[in-house]
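Could you please consider the sequence and fold appended to this message?
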Amino acid sequence: MDKQTDKKPQSRRLSGIVTSDKMDKTIVVRLDRRVTHPKYGKFYTKSTKVKAHDAKGLAKIGDVVVIQETRPLSKDKCWRLISVTSQAK
């Protein structure tokens, strides 16, 4: 009998910019994506704001961070901070 290795699918990891760090253990991250207009073909930027869990309070406004999808931690929070890629000036 062969052993089946059950591998969990990788959670999504996205990079974004911190727009708010005023909440306790929570940051708001803006995720930008470039989309093409269906008729005219022009590229434009759409953005989404998500809340992420920052237990140690490492991220500050303007930092570029990597976040990962996780189980729901509160009503609005289902992402967690993985790392701070670059610090704001």
The mean pLDDT is 93.
